[in-house]
Amino acid sequence: MQTKQKRHVYKREIIMSKILDYANEIVPCQRNWDESYQIPEEEIKYITDVATIVPTKQQKSVFSLMVITNRQIINEIFEICYEKTDKFMTFKKNSQVRANLLLVWTSGPHPYSGQSLGLAVGISSSAAALAGVELGYKTGFCKCFVAPRARDLLEKYVGKLPGKEVPLMLGIGKPDENFDTRDVTIDGVLKAKKETNGTKNIPIHRLT
Ligand SMILES: Cc1cc2nc3c(=O)[nH]c(=O)nc-3n(C[C@H](O)[C@H](O)[C@H](O)COP(=O)(O)O)c2cc1C
């Protein structure tokens, strides 16, 4: 009995440290990739299963998921990943989207928008990123893109999308080992170095 209990505690500790490690891993935004690497199809399925199985409010299909590995399409998307006003010279800098696997969340078919859509996409993308690091990959989120152009571009390949919004993108893949996480590269060539945004301090109120 004693041994069984000990084993249980030990196992629980391993699980707890794993999820914490994964949470830490998805914080830095990976900005360079071994662009020639291909993620095996069963791993892509694993990540997309996780991203689409996590709950949405009333289990409505509030988003669609674009699962992109085609390098030409990724290149096209990369071109529109910049701040519309581009005060911070973000054009061709959001290289997190140049990953081996690019996930793009779009709205619909269920017509949620704004905050309700954002909540669902947040839960889904976070789960997808955790699944990605569990498989040994790096991740990079991207909100900084011209959404209507992203939608037009995607519609060119998949036909009319059910909704108008494109809330988020997430790159997952194998980093380029020649660079640091925050080095912005295009196909192995260094283009910029990004500073970290540092750490945050989320208040936790423990009520007992
Ligand atoms: C929802 C979400 C959207 C993000 N969008 C962008 C983005 O558009 N551009 C960007 O450079 N980083 C983006 N990031 C990455 C974060 O800025 C990054 O994870 C955070 O700053 C920590 O990494 P750092 O230490 O490299 O700064 C996003 C992260 C999240 C969670």
Please name the defining characteristics of this protein.
208 residues; alpha+beta; NADH Oxidase; two-stranded antiparallel ribbon; 5 helices; 16% strand; globular; binds flavin mononucleotide
Global Rg: 18 Å
CATH hierarchy: architecture of the domain at 37-178? 3-Layer(aba) Sandwich
**Element-level helix/strand string:** HHEHEHEHEEE
**Structure classification:** alpha+beta
CATH-derived topology of the domain at 37-178: NADH Oxidase
Number of extended strands = 6
Hetero compounds: flavin mononucleotide
Regarding quaternary structure, how should these chains be classified?
single chain
Low-pLDDT regions: none
CATH evolutionary superfamily of the domain at 37-178: NADH Oxidase
Strand order of the largest sheet: 1-2-4-3
Helix content: 25-40%
Rounded average pLDDT: 94
**What top-tier CATH class of the domain at 37-178 fits best?**
Alpha Beta
- Main beta-sheet strand count, sense and barrel state: 4 strands, antiparallel
Q: What fraction strand?
A: 15-25%
Distance between the termini: 31 Å
User: Number of helix segments?
Assistant: 5
